[in-house]
Amino acid sequence: MSAAPQKVYLASRSPRRRELLKQIGVAFEVLLLRDHPGRNVDVDESQQPGEGPDDYVRRVCRIKADAGWERVLQRRLRRFPVLAADTVVCVEDVILGKPPDPSHAAKMLRLLSGREHRVLTAVTLKLEDRVELVVSESRVRFGELSQADIEAYVASGEATDKAGAYAIQGRAGAFVTELHGSYSGIMGLPLHETAQLLKNF
């Protein structure tokens, strides 16, 4: 089996994913996917009618990898694999995305209070026509959150721009009573699965 690729392009704006890749010693360059004035965004992340969280996370992750590869070709960059990831938090089959404002964040936290939810993170590697995708699933249970807990957490600013309105590596770690699965997957990049994907690629 050949060695892991010497470098990858990370198609993500997430500082957490950068930290996690550094943690396992993967050399990478960030490939920013952005919205251009007057043009569509690179990745439309809206959920399709009837689409469940598992199908959704795979599809969006795949689109991110395709958009990243498109960038590599457009900019005539050296051809290294593109690594993309997408994380969703879901209660039953309801996807909790990034809250658009503090009141939505509070509403999501109320929904997560005292119950179990799933965190799905898909990781895709793409090089030329070769695409490999893996999904990590974790189950997280929160203790009962009081209104004061929720208000203090939302006021801390940590809920902003986080799927499900929380960051497990931050203050929300204190909400977790039980966790089954990948801690790094809940942060946005499951390290074991990512390392295996790179090794097998």
Q: Structural class, from secondary structure content?
A: alpha/beta
Please report the distance between the alpha carbons of the first and last residues.
9 Å
- Outline the low-pLDDT stretches: none
Form type: elongated
Q: Rounded to an integer, what's the Rg over CA atoms?
A: 17 Å
Q: What's the number of helices? A: 6
Strand elements, count: 7
- Topology as a string of helices (H) and strands (E): EHEHEEHEEHEHH
Q: Bin the strand percentage.
A: 15-25%
Helix content: 25-40%
How confident overall, as mean pLDDT?
Answer: 92
| Major sheet size, sense and barrel closure | 7 strands, mixed
Describe the structure in brief:
By secondary structure, the chain is α/β, with parallel strands linked by helices. The chain has helices at residues 15-23, 53-74, 102-112, 147-155, 183-187, 191-200; strands at residues 8-10, 28-30, 82-91, 94-96, 116-127, 130-142, 176-180.
Describe the structure.
The structure is a single chain. The protein is α/β, with parallel strands linked by helices and 201 residues long. It has helices spanning 15-23, 53-74, 102-112, 147-155, 183-187, 191-200; strands spanning 8-10, 28-30, 82-91, 94-96, 116-127, 130-142, 176-180. Strands 1, 2, 3, 4, 5, 6 and 7 form a 7-stranded mixed beta sheet that branches. A hairpin with a 2-residue loop joins strand 3 and strand 4. Helix 3 crosses helix 4.
